[in-house]
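Dear colleague,

Following up on Tuesday's group meeting, I ran the structure prediction for the two-component complex that the binding team flagged. I've pasted the input sequences exactly as they went in, so you can double-check that nothing got truncated or mislabelled along the way. The structure tokens for the whole assembly follow below. Feel free to forward this to whoever is handling the docking comparison.

Inputs:
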Amino acid sequence: MRLAWNQLRKDVHLTRVPLGLWLGFLLLDLGTNLGWFGEFTCDRHGYTGRVGAMGAASLPVWLFLFEMILCLVVVLTDSPSRSDGFLATRPVPARDRFLGKLLYIGILVVGMRVVQEVVYLGASGIDGGLVLRAAMETLVVHALLCAGNAVFASLWRDPKQFAAGLLASGLSLAGIWLAVATVALLGPWHIPEPELDEPGRLLAAATMLVAGLALLCRHAVRERWGFGRRAAGVVVLEGAVSAILLVWPWYPFAVAPGAGGVEPMPLRAGTAAVSPTGIRFGAMTHRGTPGVSLNLAPDLSGLPSTCEVAWRGTGGRLLASGGTRGWVVRPFAAPRGPIQGWRGGFVSQREMQAWNACLGGNMLFRADHVSGTAVPDAAAGWLAFEDGLPAAGDVVSFSGSMEAILFRWELVGELALAPGSDLVDGASRWTLVAADRSGEGVNLAVRLEQLTLWSSRGQQTSGTGPPIGYSHALLLRLPERAVAVLPEGNSLVPRATLAGHTSRPRVLLRCGFQGSAPSGFRPLSEEDLETAKLVVLRKRFTDRFTVACGTGPFRVPGLPGDEPATVASAGERLPRGQLDARFAELPVPEPGASRDEVGRYLLAVIRLLDAHERPLPRDHTLCFRLAETAGAHLPVFLEATRVARGFSRQTLLAALADGLREEHRDGIVEALPSLPDLLVVVLERGWLEAARPALEKLLLVPGPLALECFRALAWSGNAVVYPRLLEEFERAPSVDRYDVLFRIPDLREALDACVQRIWANRPRQMERYQLLNRDVYAVALRHGCADAPADIARRLHELDEREMRTDWAATDAIRQGVRIPGMQPRELHDPGCVLSWFREQDPDTFRYDPVRRRFTQR
Amino acid sequence: MDPIIEIRGLRKTFRRTVAVEGLDLDVPEGAITAFLGPNGAGKTTTIKCVLNILAPDSGTIRVLGCDSRCLGPAQFCRIGYVSENQELPLWMTVDGFLAYCRAMYPSWDAGFEAKLRLQFDLPGCTKLGALSRGMRMKAALLSSLAYRPGLVVLDEPFTGLDPLVRDEFIRGLLELTEDEGWSVFISSHDIDEVERLADRVAILDRGRLRLAETTEALQARFRRVEVVLDESAPLPPGLPSTWLNPEMAVRTLRFVDSAYRDPDALTAALAAHVPGARQHHAAPMPLREIFVALARSYKLDGLHGNGGCGGTH
């Protein structure tokens, strides 16, 4: 021990300069995080332009560098691989030498790092248990990092050889992975994707590597291996660890599910009914070879409203019905055969849905995703295979497995809009730093201090990809109106990096709630701001499990996408003749047909309509057929309407309007709050009076209103709905909505004020790829805002020729709001013609014509 | 008495270069053994093998009764090793360096250290890297002698030492050998100094041991011989192989007799091999001249592909 201390003393003396710098950086980092040097603020766009913030941001890099350098220096100075060093002929036992280095790295490098972590977290007032956990995590991660670095360094006799060894091992590792990638691309073998984003697996891999390096070093020193043998040993070790990661993904540390409790999940039963949807032939694979894609729609009935599920296909087989033929479906990781599905993907970015989940009591998913039946267009599974394609006409069924990763939205709490108000949530603290009430809205600066434990990162985000890593959402709530005003894209939280939590645990979020911004319902008054609360929502990982899934037999050519072409696009829609022929083949369900039978019929109809990509005339045979069937199977029709979109939804609504009778009125009114588009049916059938209570309920539902719904509410003649309509219009202005509101005489004044606000708060910043906010400019022109033509002309002069030819948005706005004399109809849709014409005009010559409700030239 | 270093069949190669081949050598205890040889003869390689710095390809070495491959702290406490190429922590000051070394040796003699420091005149606060080569060698010597090792292995220790220090060092080493029975194994090119020191001499040439015997015996059997002939003649053929480097200069034949016993034997040999020898003179040779003669002889042997002409004793 005496000799070990002697070694330690010597090493401290040797590294006194970098050691001093290291301790200085640690102190600086601690001070920065504890705010000793003031606030290094940053917005969500990063640190650019702020020297202080950049310096603070670079601290973790310096800390890491010095950590590595210190370990390197103390090991290489007395490298055990060197038999002719100073200590080679001195009576210092290897154990004392090792102990000396261990003391140095353990106390002065790793220990200091842990102490810094503990001091920071302790001073931040974070719960003791979390501090302990963070300290342990820091200890494990940094101990592994330093040990790995030290053991690798001890393989080489001097810095020069170390550099050569590092280069050799780096190149060999790149070579190994390149070879694996080549094999995966060209060979017939399936190589699973290494899941390195789980801390447990990474730690296990790192531990294996360090242990292997230590054994290699011990053997190499004993046998006095030369550089070549040592480098070869490292290459073999890298290959072994890579093989373990790739081919034999065995990990001793399984990440346990989060402690958030497990919701009662019907999916946990281990099976899920899935329906095949959207089968397509075409160039599905990365090499452009023909393949088949298959969408699967899991049944999510019974899923709790606050839950969000991410799906990932893990494998499957397509089986020929009644035979032994089968096609193996490769998982996504194999480059040539992906099976990939995201259910509810990107939902976390939709703050409104989070809001609905936690506060509104509605389903998190869009209604069509939780209808309780197979969803035709939900891309829950995505399969492609190229070995032995099923031939057209084959009856096949699919069986496979999917992994479901379950999250749950939770309400963290609310913050008053007063600077200094804060909200503590476990390891996170939200503080309102500033609330700027200038103008018609409010700009908030919210500081989030979050201890993002690396070891809990995997639980939240593993296997879900980056989008779901954003686990918080901020909303502004105005209680008396029970609606939320949404900031744009502020759901940013610090991502857990490789330990070192104190390196940058704070993020200053800036979120603007502009009354006239597209995200606002209406200008925020002083009274609004007094009562408004900032709501913080959090998404928590709950569980992950594998679900077996399978379909019944289905016939491949019976589906619309089986054209021998690539993926259907606008130019390859289903022709009208073929559509009619397919319709004729469909068996129309009898009045007493089962729910399943009707569901399949409607599913096929929706697919065909979607493939046709055009509206169907109201007097089409299909519309008649649907109308005849609608009354007898109303519940299934309603579910189908929920999941249909675009032209198929229009057709179903038309069928409902045509085919329903008085006895169906209550059913429609009952479904109205969850399917506002049914207002079209209500209006057409004259059931407005009966639907009034439902309409009032509809007003309280947050979220955008579809145009049909908007129109129906406006035509209801109920003055109670007007404020909501104005808010909705101000939130998402459009000429269509303007025209609806313009026809309500009582609203003229309010509409004028609303448009003036929209115009006054139009985006001043020119977007590169869209000159104008089409809707705002179109509304301004339609309303007759006097300075609109001049403003448009000014912006048009900033365009180059290429942009002039492609700015469809500006073209639409001008065409809708300005009378263009002498231009052919075809030219009216050509941006080059319209914009060139407008740019050549003198804007002062335009005068608003209230009769035509357009600008005309004098 | 058991040898303190016992080398048997040592072979060491560096890729295709044979550095040492079949070396058998004993270093007796309590004596100063000089290890001589031209550049590249394999002296340093042998010493490194002795101290387990290099691993031999074959053969065995026992140092202090222990296999050299198993040398540990207990043995290194009794071995003082100084080499001209030895790595030193150059960033340390002399004081720091000595303090660092002091902690390693339980037998460190502070008084002896003080005495050596006085003798070597080492500045305590200067970094080793800032010292001259000679001063650095003194520091290395001090750190290797202050704990009174029983065996001192020196590889070119006189490099950079000024004559005064060299002289004092040699005298000190002689005293210690005599008083405390130290064994010294020294490799050097400085044969004049070695001559004053060495009890025994071992000469290595191209990895092979050419001779190993006491200095006294060596000097006793080597004579520089000049023979004056009656008339000028070419170099007589058939001269004994123990007559090294024979040369004719008009009427004078010069050679080194490596097997000299007494004047009568020389006279008889001359009579037998050199007809017309009128008179001759045999002079004792210093170690330097013996070494040079042997080195020249080995070189010629190497050219002619003959074996050595000096015997190993």
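The interface with chain B takes residues 2-3, 6, 10, 13-14, 83-86, 88-93, 224 of chain A (CB under 8 Å).

Cheers,
M.
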